[in-house]
Amino acid sequence: MAESIVSFAVAKLGDLIAQEIVFLQEVGDQLRSLHHKLQWMQAFLKDADGSIKGGNERAKLWVNQVRDAAYDAKDIIDTYIYKIHQQRRRSCTLTNCITSTSQLTILHELGNQIAKVKRRAEEISANRSKYGIESFAGTSSNISIVTTTTMSFNRKQNQLDVEEADVVGFDKHVKTLVKLLIIPEDQAGPHDQRLAVISIVGMGGLGKSTLAKKVCSNPDVKRHFTCQALVYVSQVFRTREILERIAKCAMAMSEEKMKALSQDKLKEKICEYLKGRRYLVVLDDVWTRDAWDRIKDVLPEETNGSRVLLTTRNADVGEHADRQSPLFKLQNLGEDESWDLFCKKAIHPTNSMDKCPSHLESIGKEMVAKCGGLPLAIVVLGGLVWRKEQTVVEWLKILKSLKWQLREGEDQISPILELSYHHLPYYLKPCFLYFAIYPEDIIIDPSSIIPLWIAEGFVQARDDETLEEVAEDYLQELVHRSMIQVAREENIFPGESYQIHDLILDLSIFLAKVENFLHVPKNSGEENILRKTRRLALNGNKMSSYIAAGKYSTNSSLSLHTVTCMDMKVRTSEMVRFLHDMKLLRVLNLQGTGIKKLPSDIGKLIHLRYLGLVETEIKTLPSSIAELTNLQTLMLGTSIFALPHGIWKMGNNLRHLKRFIISIMGTPSVESLPNLQTLSYVKVGPWLLNGLGKMTSLRTLGLLKVIDTYVEPLLDCLGKLDNLNDLFWWAADGSIIPSSILSTPQSHHRRHLQPQEVCLDGRIERLPESNLMNFCITRLTLRDSRLEEDPLVTLGKLGNLQFLRLYDAFVGEEMICLERGFPQLKQLVLENLDSLKRWNIEDQAMPKLRHLSLHGCYKLVMLPDDLERITSLQEFTVERMPDSFNQRLRVDEGEDWGKIRHIPFVTIR
């Protein structure tokens, strides 16, 4: 971790010396000397990275001192650049950009500060030899030095393939819980019919959530309960979100209808709906009695066998919820189950064998025994071992390095998780710690975390790849190391999202504080930020009082480089005052704060790389926004409808501009935003004629309300965007989307437009001939296309297509998946196909399909006969389908049950 921080300071010094040499007359030699000193420290720390972690307190102290010195050097440099910029703003003329007096004053102050840091650096360097610290880098008494080469994953092909390892040994638990939930009517007495709460209790990482999900997917449970709802509660408890989740799962209530109801009205609607129905509500991860007390009022006390399944780490919560029902205390895995889970995660499959090689078995079992049967610990350890060579030498190194300090409760997992962190290569450590900015149980979009990493300087350039592509590999590597997980959301959308387990999030928060990397206050009463923290994360409304009360010191605010706020409402004046002295900000994320305006002098934050204004009430941006020439990412809220003319002057650094339905004013210059990679979603207008074709770095483009008069010029511009990967085209009412977007152009006058991810919203007269289709497409969404010819016949020939969503895209009565069609398709969504009556699947079609969803196809009579042959199917979701169709899917009884009985997860709403 320290190596990464020193790298930032070294890089900043190098840039400063190269770019500002004209102003460095008196301090240039001092800067170069400090630069060289930090380079030596950087090299030493990089060699020792991973070995410092052992019990060498002298080494830890030395590393902390190096880190603080590097931090201070970086602050001095950033402050210098800021002051120079401010002087230029105040004093700039055509002939003189800064007065000599001001220059000498700033240089004199800079020289004194550099001299102090340089003396500290020399003293720290001398202490390494003086106190014998240099010896630890060359020994292996605690843990071997980790050298890891970044893996270059095939992002596009593997995104839908990453699956979470299943916890083994839960079958017997499922059977027990099913018996507790379902009491046969002929055996049930009055007591058994009451609303009972069954609580699964156990420490974090035992798999309580996984077990609850398995119980919900049990066919007997699905048949017994009229409606079900699965709700994540967590420590950060929001009553409104819980109610909306219940309404969505149990009642299939739309987002629009939920938003239109007050909290009391929503609660009333849920109660009315559940009355008279036999329901099952699963409350996952309940931490406090208060959480249960605030939810229980919405659950009517029916005497029909309704149940609540609750998971918690606190037995007191379960007893409080229902003192008449015994707690189900989840125990650790047994020896055989632990070993099976470890092998699933750690062993590289060779041919058809995925068993542990015999010569490694004894070492592996000794490692697994240290996990104490804790599934999360076993999975994390398995992810660590998976990254190593399967040799006795490598496995013995891991075994010897495990300083397991097994204690009661959750402390068992800390050494395992911390070991995994210390085994991360240096470039992944700050990326992992950065997850500490997020609240619990949040779904993390890669398009959110990746720009933040880049803005912070965590992502290293690699060959000809973009920083975003390198960062995507970082995410995949963290997944493979079991530090984060691929999220499995019920909502259907293309692409991956991620989440981090509560315990691993706790670890990231703890280590971020220890490393003085990032501070996450636990409550609003916490004292001032200590030790000149560089990053501050405030989550939830409770933290709004932290800002209002000014819980920060002047020194701390001056050193802050990052401020992220999520889901908290604050007054605009309080936020402006809070940010007043923060001159060195690189990242400012005000998501969910609801503030109404930015400071008029926001342009003075010349170091700013990331500005997040999602879920604010800001309607206009100050003109000084154009002065943020280092800004890389601008995330706008929905209240901003137009960008000022100055957007075209923001220079070469802007990479991502995101907002839904926005207009761009003004005329682009010749070199407007040449490095812009994301532009979404913007209204088509005159700006595109002179601007879009010049944005040759664009990879993601979202265009809204495209009218016919702009179609041809737009196609001409798109033909110049060789790097375009993701295209969203929303046609204006009455306009037609040209089918050529989906084809490979044959004309030599226009370059090939071959995006891999395409979403088209609007009327399409017909699809191109199959031999002319763009075979590079991996994800395709067609919405309101109103095609008259069966789209599956043509689309089935796209050899790389992995995701397909058809929403009101076909007006015919019959569709067919031809023989061997859709060879790579993994997810298919058929939605609002109002006229569809028959759907057929021919032999060997969709051999890799994993997720199938049918929504609102009201006239569809039955499922295709050959669906039962698709053995790859893992999930099948049916929603808003007629009762006659749903009756055919009844367990063991329905005419179509045999076609879906092989699918593990079937959901019918």
UniProtKB/TrEMBL annotation:
Residues 574-879 form the Disease resistance R13L4/SHOC-2-like LRR domain. The keyword Repeat applies. Pfam families: LRR_14, NB-ARC, Rx_N, WHD_DRP. Residues 437-507 form the Disease resistance protein winged helix domain. The keyword Chaperone does not apply. GO terms for biological process: defense response to bacterium; innate immune response-activating signaling pathway; plant-type hypersensitive response. Residues 5-93 form the Disease resistance N-terminal domain. It comes from the Eukaryota. Keywords: Leucine-rich repeat, Nucleotide-binding, Plant defense, Repeat. One of its GO terms (molecular function) is ADP binding. SUPFAM superfamilies: L domain-like, P-loop containing nucleoside triphosphate hydrolases. Residues 195-349 form the NB-ARC domain. Signal peptide: none annotated. Belongs to the disease resistance NB-LRR family. PANTHER family: DISEASE RESISTANCE PROTEIN RP, DISEASE RESISTANCE PROTEIN RPM1. This is Disease resistance protein. It comes from Dioscorea zingiberensis.
